[in-house]
Amino acid sequence: MDENADAEPYAEIVSGTPDNWGVWGDDDELGALNHLDPDAVLRGVGAVSSGETFTLGTPIGHPDGDPMWPTRDDADHHMLRDKGHFEAGKVTREPYGGWENSDDLVYLYNHGTTHVDGLAHVWYGDELYNGFDAATTKGGIERCGIEHVADRGIVGRGVLLDVARHRDVEYLDAGERITLEELLACASEQGVEVRRGDVLLIRTGAMDLFYREGADAFYEEFETTHGGEPALDEAGITYTEELVEWFDEREIPMLATDTVTAEQTISETTGTRLPLHPVLLRDLGVLISEMNRLGDLAAGCAEDGRYEFLYVGAPLHVVGGTGGPMNPIVVK
Amino acid sequence: MDENADAEPYAEIVSGTPDNWGVWGDDDELGALNHLDPDAVLRGVGAVSSGETFTLGTPIGHPDGDPMWPTRDDADHHMLRDKGHFEAGKVTREPYGGWENSDDLVYLYNHGTTHVDGLAHVWYGDELYNGFDAATTKGGIERCGIEHVADRGIVGRGVLLDVARHRDVEYLDAGERITLEELLACASEQGVEVRRGDVLLIRTGAMDLFYREGADAFYEEFETTHGGEPALDEAGITYTEELVEWFDEREIPMLATDTVTAEQTISETTGTRLPLHPVLLRDLGVLISEMNRLGDLAAGCAEDGRYEFLYVGAPLHVVGGTGGPMNPIVVK
Amino acid sequence: MDENADAEPYAEIVSGTPDNWGVWGDDDELGALNHLDPDAVLRGVGAVSSGETFTLGTPIGHPDGDPMWPTRDDADHHMLRDKGHFEAGKVTREPYGGWENSDDLVYLYNHGTTHVDGLAHVWYGDELYNGFDAATTKGGIERCGIEHVADRGIVGRGVLLDVARHRDVEYLDAGERITLEELLACASEQGVEVRRGDVLLIRTGAMDLFYREGADAFYEEFETTHGGEPALDEAGITYTEELVEWFDEREIPMLATDTVTAEQTISETTGTRLPLHPVLLRDLGVLISEMNRLGDLAAGCAEDGRYEFLYVGAPLHVVGGTGGPMNPIVVK
Amino acid sequence: MDENADAEPYAEIVSGTPDNWGVWGDDDELGALNHLDPDAVLRGVGAVSSGETFTLGTPIGHPDGDPMWPTRDDADHHMLRDKGHFEAGKVTREPYGGWENSDDLVYLYNHGTTHVDGLAHVWYGDELYNGFDAATTKGGIERCGIEHVADRGIVGRGVLLDVARHRDVEYLDAGERITLEELLACASEQGVEVRRGDVLLIRTGAMDLFYREGADAFYEEFETTHGGEPALDEAGITYTEELVEWFDEREIPMLATDTVTAEQTISETTGTRLPLHPVLLRDLGVLISEMNRLGDLAAGCAEDGRYEFLYVGAPLHVVGGTGGPMNPIVVK
């Protein structure tokens, strides 16, 4: 890997961790999603027991606001046609025999609702995952765009680690760290094991706070500033060599959380912001999914005591997308 | 049902067909999706055999164009940040240790890519599905918005009827009709049965034409005008009492096709445009999904001889959406 | 005028004031802009002396934010092409001999920057200016859209009343009222007279506060809530019968201010919000222009002692616009 | 000037022509607009005689389409609020006493309606006007953005050369060339002289064709392809050393036309596309304004025999805009 001057601080921090470059060929743009082969899919299907389903996508364009990294904007949803158009005589449907219709569009940040980060979302040392030149992002993502993930889909066995319930709190406070040790203790308490190829879901309770107590309560808890810009300070796992090696060894294809930033925003171990993002996305090719609504699923798991399930997610097939909005489904 | 003067021609045409109003209560906004209970989900899961997956979403913002009803526009995809921002010194990532990132957004018609129509997309007689007032659509969908479908998800057993292969053609020509009799013959030839609660997928080959031969070839085949406006003239099933009763009796929760309009656009039986839409969406509460990429799935089915599978779809959770973009996944 | 039940409180309040309905014919959609005939234009031209020019439009998409009514959003400005596209080989300009170009677009609230309100922006009693049915706004403005103003242009003699300077303050505080008496005293002190047909510009200093001390200082001074929604509480003139009659008698075609709301937001005289808007726009057909950058112009006027000038404004020609963004020019 | 390899063909073609780099200082971002000083403004004001006004902006979002370079899209105009919202109970205006309002936004290509190209719209040899690095355009225009033009305004004496009327045709056919000799003959026939500092307007009749006979007639006449992409082939002036020197010597601040491309699209003299753009914008700093509605103005000039007037234009103040939509006003 070629590190330029700017990237060195980060590159130095993570210099001891593994990567998956070349593992699936020099042209690979899927990364750890390659772990989800048909056998992995069948393991996911095999985890189904009750047939109960849960969708994880958060509302888009909710009148009370959407959870959002502060430099992004809420989605806009525009009605293009409704009953008013017909009342005002602005549309006729004669060839249709008179039935009427409505239409609409969305103006949506790809990272502004429940989504999966593509492998080209993050880089350092001027190189993306698998060594692609970061300059290929200029004017549109050319390598590792989200279309590859959209085309493949994310289907496998999922495991929820409900850290909030494990700690017996409604939600983790701003800035709190979850250690690997705690993850494993949580799994153990839940009677579940993170196996090779499992999609890992971690619940902090943040989305539940947003939707139960409202946007103001959420931002009051988590909003802060970084370098003069509005930002969030969320709870989560963070960078350690041990954790990264565990992700690698467990062959985790994707990390999904109910937070906006997926990890402890201001890392307790590195002092920098979001150090797991590049290690996961760019080095290991591990996808990251953020802003998942995990509250109902967690309640269901607590009830039946089963924290493994079939996970199915497929982002919108945005050509050259840096990420893709999606509404994942869990089948228990 | 209260028919107003404008709607009478259509209302008269379909006056002999059943509806599902009140079947799931006066407040129901899910319609035939109610058929997809945990048992139906388990039947879908039970149809899995190989673990192969197929995603059905079409590319969004493809440089060669997206398939589109002519009065809608292709999606716009805007890069908000790429490597160029960093080269030009317009962004710094100091608190991050210097790693860099890309960001983007989409401006997207909800019915302008693979999507599911919500029950409020279509009405006549001033009433939506279950008798809700069509005036509730004014200024934003209040009843039967796509958020209900997004929250529930569409998970069950799916069956593909590959009419194009059944006819031994690459794609059905503009305006051709598929009869119920042909659907049943196709199923029989394929050795599959449409059972109660199955998601019904019908392949005409239209999306394959678009993606194999290009947008020009597609529009040359299908583009036409209705009442002075540019329109499409596609192939598909169309309204008959018998067909509607079959959908009702089979408890089909959703019809999905690889066309833009889901049915024979200019109906051979009624002479009007798209007469199945209101009967399915508004009367029976049956969802409709359009522009599905079915070519690879069909090839897979032809290869292993199995036309049933687990179908999983969840539209984006657009609050008050008339429809929702989605990237469905099939697990064989 | 037909008042419906909902509108009665407002209709009662303003029942004693005049209107211009029918004055320029039953089909008129220009209102008081009709006062700006060629003679009025020549009066404006006659006010030119030095040839100095001032533009009044505020920046759109400023990195530090744009002044905005809180329920609207800042403009988004998207680069569609820049040098990065060429560096990354994503565009070629062969037929051009190799020269390169940049391109962009804006996503812009029509009332989200310096603009003029169209006559269809506001109504009561279910009727717009000149008695047009308010239902004609459904699904797009059919009568009194901003295209009529855009087609005509706003050209005439303008007069600035610099109330902030008159009071010897940098800006008027939130909620302060400017009376007609004060306007006249200000004019008198400035040695200028508001004559028939003059475009009236009133300066409170609000935009200067925004651009000199920043968005935070601006919102700290003016932000409030109305009925649970974020709102502003600005300074300005407000409704009295006397003031409305003065506008009518002076044949003022347009009121322009350096505030977001153009008038005392929470009216001291009526207790309601923005009571001048409907009286001016809907009854008299007087246009309203908001968020004008008046600081430089005011300094220029103070320097040369001349507060009259040629005013030239033409909003974007948005078909069916409720208002139109514009960048007015003053020629002194 | 530093020419890179890619740019050489163009750079060679125009190597004999003058530039204005450094003329107004190394930091100048206004270019030839500097010619429009207060004296020039007063010369424009002195050209007023009748007080008649003409606006030149074309409709935005017209139901029958907007004139457009084929790779751009028509503007979208979205209603955000109308009477339907109130009828459906989705908005209340209690604090307002019950008066109601409408609201809207536009999604608009800056070069997709009547506009002025900023000096950063075009470059070659990796340098913008005045030698600024073309890399400063990456991720947003940093130098020579349209905000400088918006802040200054374009006010001066304008002269219309009505070439269509001079040729006694309704419009110039696709691909036709207008020579400098013809411009001067046209001026002479019209009894007008292009003086130093005049804004130059050239009419070909193209916009009149669009608005009189419709979009289809317009594109039938002018649409073509360049290098596989849809394009236009319009009539206009084109590059010669003599013409460029005339622009320079006449100190023309801006060229405005009623075409989409402002010049003979496929140059008869260079064989390349649009060779005047970089010479005017990047070398001389001369602005270019396109898609001006000149038909009514031309008729007025023909009637009174006066082809000079006051020209006033100010684009929207888009920060970092590559161009700015505007609705210019002519005062005769």
TrEMBL record, chains A, B, C, D:
GO molecular function: hydrolase activity
SUPFAM superfamilies with a match to the protein in the record: Putative cyclase
Keywords assigned by UniProt, alphabetized: Hydrolase
Top-level EC class as recorded in UniProt: hydrolase
EC code(s) of this entry: 3.5.-.-
Organism superkingdom: Archaea
This protein's record includes keyword DNA-binding: no
Listed InterPro entries: KFase/CYL, KFase_sf
Annotated Pfam families: Cyclase (PF04199)
Protein name as it appears in the record: Cyclase family protein
Organism of provenance: Halorubrum glutamatedens
